[in-house]
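Entry for the shared binder. Reason: the reviewer on the internal report wants the predicted structure included alongside the sequence.
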Amino acid sequence: MKLLHYTYRKLSLLLLLLMAVWGVLFYYAIIDEVMDETDDTLENYSEILINNALMDPSILDTEGTLMSFYKFRPISEEEAEDYDEEFYDSTVYIESEDEDEPVRVLKTAFRMPDGQFYELELMISILERDDMVEAILWYLGALFLLFLICTSIGTRLILQSVFRPLHRLLNWLQQIQPGKELPVLDNPTKIREFQQLGDAAVDMGNRSYKAYEEQKQFIENASHELQTPLAIVRGKIELLAENESMTEEQLKELDEIYTTLGRAVRLNKSLLLLSRIENGQSTETEDVSVDEVLDELLPDLMDIYEGKKIHLVRTKETEPFVIRCNLSLAQILVSNLVQNSLVHNREGGELHIATTPSSLTIMNSGEHPLDGEKLFRRFYRSIDGKKDSTGLGLAIARSIALSASLSLTYKWQERMHLFLLVKESQKKS
């Protein structure tokens, strides 16, 4: 989930919760205020009625209308002494409408000049109050919805503006490629944290690029410098092996040294080849038919691994798979992929090679899947990796593929290792 959407969702939920709490509190505040106003009206009306009764006792025998109904009831002195004024909600049956109507009731007691105590029961219809509360709730709900919509839109626009520098920084980071100079970061912002993050990213990118260049230069220089010493050592070992005074045990030890030296020579050549590929030194490119390269390489490679009795299944279409690449590099690419599938195939296994106008697929029998992320790293060897393997074959293949705008991927399918080589344009489409 994007940071903008996550933040927006959290703020919206918080805002919704706060608005809901505020709405409930506002509702009860309105209800309480309306109740107070109703009770004040009852108190004021009761004072008027009591004053009128004190001046004109005949009022004691009258009753009010429905909207402000009242009646007087004589009570004893003992009852008056313990009397407490009270307010409460009740209902009154309206015979003409055959239904109960809600009312607010006030009961209070007072004393007439002749010493007689009376109870005044005063009622006020609260239909208008309920209508007012309902109207307030409707307006409150509409206001709440409008406020929520406006706030949500405003919050989203503000968050988009706030996070825009972060999005520009992320887009810039995605443009960074190993071995290539950093693109220019145009990300003006007034937010100090984003400024610091951008500066740190640029600094880290520059240091990574510098370290990459230094490492690449070191490998290239070291490979060049090692070529001559390795060739000299190899020649001396060969001369020493021709010495007739060497015993069988010495010759055996010498053979092991020669084998180890051979692996060092192959490793040195592979590292030098990687450096040349990454430096773009193989600039001469042409249209190369992968099908033709396979036709040339497969007979020799199958002969080399004839002892493993691997069954080859070769399929191709009428139109060949043509790539734009240096011919020598294309041969190395195809050779490394096929040889890897032969070396790591089981005895009596299968090797399926298929080409289309846009892809090369190589599948070989396997026992367990491999780590697709680590497989193309330098010096990576699987659990069943061969001792004489340099661990650079697939890394070289990936580098050649990238230089030729090709995509090389791996996956485990139907208990077989599958390597797929396709053009980048075909992969995106």
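Summary line for the report: The CA atoms of residues 136 and 207 lie 65 Å apart.
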